[in-house]
Amino acid sequence: MWWARDVRRATVFTGAGISTDSGVPDYRGPQGIWTKDPSLADLFTYDNFRADAEVRLRFWQVFAGRQGEVEPNAAHRALAELEASGKALRVITQNVDGLHQKAGSTPRKVVELHGSLATATCLSCGERTPAAEAIARLPEEPVCACGGVLKPSVVMFGEYLDQDVLSLARNIAAASELFLAVGSSLQVEPAASLCALAVENGAGLVIVNRDPTPYDDLATALVREPIGTALPRICEALAP
């Protein structure tokens, strides 16, 4: 791992693949949510969610069914331990499961590009409600106290990323010496383009993923071994 030597500032960009060992299914893999049931992708479309009460209720039912007590795995813990060792480390994640923070990563050092499942947001008044309170109202559709539609505080297809969050992620990527892309298909833009931005600003790009990605040609190294073993080994090599 020559590319890990003398790295002062590292950024880790994580996708669904880092959480599969915690029992959180990914989306596009062989056992992915959309692979098993392509119709579920329609539930993640903002226009469909906003327009159709049946879509909203089904979304909440699927969402509630995934809210078991999941715990961070070895990969999440390795990142938290690397940060605790004193390494200048930032995490940018496409995930909405909160497992980086649960593992011990400093919340302000984790950039959640696609939001969080911890809360729901009213599409009328903007008020945020703990997601658990919304789920408790099932089988009725969860609604805000104002009567407005409640939506999990995540970015759906057809929505723009929060520009302040995206700008922060871009600044972090541009300042990196090493950019690790872990467990992401790198097919969702503009998030995936952070890889190119990091490389354009002189960072080494290492992709840790089971399958090929659109950014493999830019990579300094490709790691195909399981994330649960690869990332702890990489973090050990990066430790001060």
How is this structure best described in words?
The model has no long low-confidence stretch (mean pLDDT 91). The protein contains nine helices and nine strands. Helix 8 (194-200) links the parallel strand 7 and strand 8. The chain is of the alpha/beta class. Helices cover 31% and strands 18% of the residues. The protein has two domains: 1-24 and 72-114 and 161-240, Rossmann fold (3-Layer(aba) Sandwich); 25-69 and 119-154, 2-Layer Sandwich (SIR2/SIRT2 'Small Domain').
What's the number of extended β-strand segments?
9
Q: What is the global morphology?
A: elongated
Give, in spatial order, the strands making up the sheet with the most strands: 3-2-1-7-8-9
Order of helices and strands: EHHHHEHEEEHEHEHEEH
CATH superfamily label of the largest domain = TPP-binding domain
How much beta, percentage-wise?
15-25%
In the CATH hierarchy, what is the architecture of the largest domain at level 2?
3-Layer(aba) Sandwich
Number of helices: 9
- Low-confidence parts: none
Distance N terminus to C terminus?
A: 15 Å
* Main sheet summary: 6 strands, parallel
By secondary-structure content and strand pairing, the structural class works out as alpha/beta
The CATH topology label of the largest domain is Rossmann fold
